[in-house]
Write a structure and sequence with these properties.
about 475 residues, alpha/beta, Rossmann fold, N-(1-d-carboxylethyl)-l-norvaline Dehydrogenase, domain 2, 2 domains, seven-stranded mixed sheet, two-stranded antiparallel ribbon, 20 helices, 9 strands, about 55% helix, about 10% strand, globular, binds 6-phosphogluconic acid
Length: about 475
């Protein structure tokens, strides 16, 4: 700490802010945090060790004055108005050249607006996605910064120190121009929603179709996590099945109400995909099914009305579970494909220069969607950095083809058992459509032209045509 000034400041000492500061302090950085809530500051100090150089204050001005220039200040506050409010309170306290980082889940269009605004005030602004939850923040998140290159260069050593490491390589890289950092994090979250939806469907097949106990499902997921499905979300699913509810002694998962929450990043991904436009049906389904889940009372009434008979799956259990693993892996590959294709498209539409090779590289560790599969995607982008869709990679195509039949079979069985596996179905449907060189939308074009003179193109000559339909 030169002149008793701190290297880094944090605004917002909630779970993420506090843990990220402690992570920085572990790596020798002197850090100061601000939160109006003094208890949060106290929690930061409580969790720090004597080796840490950590301070907490409840005045923003007091914090800013104690940071070395050019200042590096990160906000970890709820997305939306709180970010604008913090920026307004900060601006009179800053000097030109200071770096302000928004490390929350901000909407990328807000980040674009704020970047321009901060530039006009001669400040550097970095929209940065941070993934990994509490543990990630404390011991190594995946970090997705974008925008201001000079600021990135300045922050790089610090961010590389605190980021998760895979094979010694830090899970942080420059994600591209403007709001690319928050854009990549938004799509990360869309993929997160989709994988969680797929896992929940597989859980339902195991629970309802095969009548597996939670202890048995723990074993299935734990085994999957030792093989090619190895990933954070499979790992925590295995863990969840073992957790007891201290109040009732029951398995906690059985006590949790089946209404899913969401903070909106999945919805943004879907809405934004439609704006581009690009097709991400498995992410759309994940958002839609969280929404259906909220209508619990209606679902109960409808169940009483329809009395669906959920037939047991009679196939050989062990063999079917193996197929289920292959089906899940195939669907997960396809939802990554949708998200990455969206980034490819957005990168060119918005001129963000998103390096997809680096995106998958830094998603291999620290973040919620980290998985062994990302190694294969990394190889694919090393072979072709501008791959429009990972399904076009020859090796990945081979891998997917090995699992396609399992995906189809599992869906057939689940449909007959009246188990909603719409995420799995959407992944398969996407694959079937994407690998179809002759989709039936010629009929849609004919209909559009017939009722609305919307015109169509022909297969045998260029141009735009309209027919006087009989
Ligand atoms: C992460 C997560 C995180 C996200 C939560 C909650 O990468 O660490 O994506 O940023 O906020 O998962 O998201 P929902 O409440 O929308 O499910």
């Amino acid at each position: 700490m030169s002149n008793n000034l701190f290297h880094f400041g944090m605004i917002g000492l909630g779970t993420m802010g506090r843990n990220l500061l402690l992570n920085l302090a572990d790596h020798g950085y002197s850090v100061i945090g601000f939160d109006k809530d003094e208890q949060k500051g106290a929690a930061l100090l409580n969790e720090s060790t004597p080796q840490h150089k950590v301070k907490a204050v409840s005045s923003l001005q007091e914090m800013v004055q104690q940071i070395e220039q050019p200042r590096k200040i990160m906000m970890l506050v709820p997305a939306g108005k709180p970010v604008d409010d913090v920026i307004e309170s900060l601006l009179p306290l800053l000097q030109p050249g200071d770096i302000v980082i928004d490390g929350g889940n901000s909407f990328f269009e807000d980040t674009l607006r704020r970047t321009t605004y901060m530039q006009s005030k001669q400040m550097h602004f970095v929209g940065m996605g941070v993934s990994g939850g509490e543990k990630g923040a404390r011991f190594g998140p995946s970090i997705m910064p974008g925008g201001d290159v000079a600021a990135w260069k300045n922050l790089q050593p610090l961010l590389e120190a605190v980021a998760a490491k895979v094979n010694g390589e830090p899970c942080v890289a420059y994600m591209g121009k403007d709001a690319a950092g928050h854009y990549v994090k938004m799509v990360h979250n869309g993929i997160e929603y989709a994988i969680m939806q797929l896992i929940s469907e597989v859980y339902d097949v195991l629970r309802t179709g095969l009548s597996l106990s939670n202890a048995e499902m723990h074993q299935v997921f734990a085994k999957w996590n030792e093989g090619e499905l190895k990933s954070f979300l499979i790992e925590i699913s295995a863990q969840i099945f073992l957790q007891k509810d201290p109040e009732t002694g029951k398995d906690l998962v059985d006590v949790i109400l089946d209404k899913a929450g969401s903070k909106g990043t999945g919805k943004w991904t879907s809405q934004e995909a439609m704006n581009l436009p690009i097709s991400i049906p498995t992410i759309d389904i994940a958002v839609a099914f969280r929404d259906i889940s909220v209508y619990k009372e209606e679902r109960i009434a409808a169940e009483a009305l329809y009395q669906p008979e959920r037939k047991k799956i009679t196939a050989d259990k062990a063999a079917f579970i193996e197929q289920l693993g292959h089906a899940l892996q195939a669907a997960i590959m396809i939802c990554y494909a949708q998200g990455l294709a969206m980034l490819h498209k957005a990168s060119s539409v918005y001129n963000m220069d998103i390096p997809l090779k680096d995106v998958v590289k830094i998603w291999r560790g620290g973040c919620i969607i980290r998985s062994l599969l990302l190694e294969d995607f990394y190889t694919a982008y090393q072979n072709n950095a501008d791959l429009a869709n990972i399904l076009l990679d020859q090796q990945l195509a081979k891998l997917l083809q090995l699992k396609e039949t399992a995906l189809r079979n599992v869906i057939v069985q689940a449909v007959q058992s009246k188990i909603a596996v719409t995420g799995l179905m959407s992944a398969l449907g996407y694959l079937d459509a994407y690998t179809d060189g002759n989709m039936p939308v010629n009929l849609i074009q004919a209909q559009r032209d017939l009722f609305g003179a919307h015109t169509y193109q022909r297969i045998d000559k260029p141009g735009t045509f309209h027919t006087q339909w009989d």
